[in-house]
Amino acid sequence: MRRLTVYYDGRCGLCCATRDWIDRQPQLIRIECVPSKEPGAELTVIADTGEIWEGDGAWIVVLWALRDYRHWAKRLSTPSMLPVARGMFAKLSQYRGAVSCSLGLEPELP
Amino acid sequence: MFVMYAYVAYLVLSIAITVWVARTLHNNGRLFLVDAFHGQEALADSVNKLLVVGFYLINLGWMVGSLRTYEALETPRVALEFLSEKIGTVLFVLGLMHFFNLYLFNRFRRRALDELAFGMPPIPPTGTVARS
User: Which residues of B fall below an 8 Å CB-CB distance to A?
Assistant: First the structure.
């Protein structure tokens, strides 16, 4: 696996800010971020080797690809932490519009 | 009366202990660092030396700074108690610094192992697509 393509919600300010953050991080596996035009699109990660990760688990795959956060990905994916991590991401994802508004984050797509 | 003797004994003992701990750290930490820097020995030696310099500065600074006592130290007993209290503190601080250094060595090494570990993400994929 050498490359990951990340499809994120291009109409979500928080997601675009996260994309900028990912671009600034040292990457062990190259990450290409593509804004998705579908309204309410779920975070999706596709590897160059064909694997797909959708939804709550996908962001852990993104962390795993970043040099400084790989150990976090391992820590968060242990059986005791994984439900917590998934739950937190699901909640954040559900309220991402509200979070973007309250932080004043503008999306790149209208 | 015993103040000067106590001060000299304190400085000699604590400096000797610091040198011993620093040398132990320097000699045994090297392997960790060589591993962490993927076998680049020159870089590992350089980082090792820098860590030891920091270790010396913090510890010697601490022990020189905490030399002073307000007690008169009039009997050998009081002088010895002063000495043991000071040296005890020095040992404790050295111990903390030592574990902190071990933590740093281990963190460098774990990161290096992570960078080598290719393989798969810790989460199983939810599906696959045909490879294009």
Answer: 110-111, 114-115, 118, 120-123, 125-131
